[in-house]
Amino acid sequence: MTPEKEMTASPTSSRSVTETVNGSHKFVIQGYSLAKGMGVGKHIASDTFTIGGYQWAIYFYPDGKNVEDNSTYVSVFIALASDGTDVRALFELTLVDQSGKGKHKIHSHFDRSLESGPYTLKYRGSMWGYKRFFRRSALETSDYLKDDCLKINCTVGVVVSVMDSPGLHSVHVPESDIGMHFGSLLDKQEGSDVVFNVSGEKIHAHKLVLAARSPIFHSLFFDGLDDERNEIVVTDMVPKVFKAMLHFIYRDTLVEDDILVTSYLPESSVSDTLVAKLLAAADKYCLERLRLLCEAHLCREISVNSVASTLALADRYHAMELKASCLKFAAENLAAVMRSSGFEHLKDNSPSLQSELLTTIAGCEEEYKKSRSDWGQLSDGEDSSGRRIRPRTDTDTNY
């Protein structure tokens, strides 16, 4: 009698993958010389930024963190700024060489991860970094400090573990390249059927593309009597601005950032920048995404000297999110803003904006007090619940 065959199940498998979710943040410290002398253990904090599901912040101590060092060094740390327990991560801090020679000062945890493993942050307020990041006397004569400005880049890699099933395959789909193809159409002028005369310069384009992107162009070409006109004179825009607008229409992106740079301009110059003129073009041709891109760019450059003129610009061209940001910034920095000449101009020429500013001050006063209280707790060694953060031990990073 033949024995029965044994039933066997097909083998199964699984794979656990541990990797890092990486992200970076750039922190610009303008007015370094004014920050000196704020006191040992006191810091300037960056905005919080999110990487790997947690919020982080960069702390810069211009007079150092250690009393024993007697302000000989500046200190830099990366802090866990949200609730979390035993968050494991790799870190990198880079002091940017502003001479263009690329000789950055880099402290990296990534290149020694195999040797020491990721660093564990126990709870909100835990930090990784360097008490003796750079000797202060050397820093102040180096290429890292330019125009009283320091630039610090930080990278955080949060360690995560995921289960990967080999039976589930994936196909990588590249980013959309439709903008590249339409941009090529503009550059080569193939099939162009309309010419814009902008200050004497002839610029070729395509009616269908313009009409698809802008209701104003659609009305001009297809809803009125001008659809047969093949040359249009533009009198309220210079060629550089018109070309930058076409760049967006065809590619759905702004021109390169170095062309748009507005940092630290005098307040009277904000409206003369390319990004401000593009904001006006977006308003004229109802290009809502271009409007938001311009708002985002201008929002990053808000300062005490520029906020009044940027607020007036936002109000004129219906940039509501930029306007709200300007009002809040002005309310939070009111004393300094009121001393600027831009504020005087605003007071004399835009009384309605002054009224909106007063309303914003009243609305954000409590929020501002709460924010200062929360960060004050963190900087004094407590977490958001008021628990005292334990002193660092030998297992903590304490460079």
Give an account of the 3D structure.
The protein is 37% helix and 23% strand. With 399 residues, the chain is an alpha+beta fold. β3 and β4 form a beta hairpin. 28% of the residues are buried.
Number of domains: 3
Number of helical stretches of at least 4 residues? 15
CATH class category name of the largest domain: Mainly Beta
Provide the CATH superfamily of the largest domain.
Apoptosis, Tumor Necrosis Factor Receptor Associated Protein 2, Chain A
Shape, principal axes of CA atoms: globular
Radius of gyration, in Å, reads 28 Å
In quaternary terms, these chains amount to single chain
Mean pLDDT: 82
Task: Output the helix-strand order.
Answer: EHEEEEEEHEEHEHEEHHEHHHHHHHHH
**How many beta strands in the DSSP annotation?**
13
CATH architect. name of the largest domain: Sandwich
Largest sheet: 5 strands, antiparallel
Kindly report the CATH topology of the largest domain: Apoptosis, Tumor Necrosis Factor Receptor Associated Protein 2, Chain A
Distance between the termini: 78 Å
Portion in strands: 15-25%
Low-confidence stretches: 371-399
Short structural description:
This protein has 399 residues and is an alpha+beta fold.
Keyphrases for this structure?
single chain, Potassium Channel Kv1.1, Chain A, Serine Threonine Protein Phosphatase 5, Tetratricopeptide repeat, five-stranded antiparallel beta sheet, globular, disordered C terminus
List the helices and strands and how they pair.
Elements (H helix, E strand, L loop, with lengths): L14 E16 L1 H4 L8 E2 L3 E3 L2 E8 L11 E8 L6 E9 L9 E4 L4 H4 L2 E3 L5 E9 H4 L9 E16 L13 H11 L5 E5 L2 E5 L1 H7 L1 H9 L7 E4 L4 H13 L5 H4 L13 H11 L3 H13 L6 H10 L3 H13 L1 H5 L2 H9 L1 H29 L20
Parallel strand pairs: 11-13
Antiparallel strand pairs: 1-10, 2-4, 3-4, 4-5, 5-9, 6-7, 6-8, 6-10, 11-12
